[in-house]
Amino acid sequence: MELKQQIIKFGSDFKNSAEKLTKTAVDSSRKLTEKVKIQNKIHQAEAKLNETYIAMGKKYEELYGNRADPAFSQYLADIADARAQIAAARAEMSAAASAAVCPKCGKYLTQNQKFCPYCGSKKQEDDAVIDISTESEIRLSETPIDE
What we know:
Elements: H1 3-64, H2 73-96, E1 100-101, E2 108-109
Antiparallel strand pairs: 1-2
């Protein structure tokens, strides 16, 4: 074969290979796009299902509270525990609202403490008081459960 014919054949083979590769890449991209769309549908349906379960559980607790079926006792205990933790954290937040911060370790100090009980560092008189706005709190539920 002549050099010119070899170059033409190489070019033609290269073109065919590039077209096959491009077609394969496009087909793979289409399949992947379709899979992502389907996965998104599944995710949305699962999210809706979870939201519905949460709403149903809240409604059940609202309606039955401590009169609920014994099969739900652990869930109700977990809810009571979470509420107690939230109340304790809110009390801690309230106490921290008027606290100074240790310049060495960053722990909260009450106004009358001269030394940090955690690291022993002396409180500076010009330490700023932390102002924690209660408006920024996220409250999931403030409705008490009727027993």
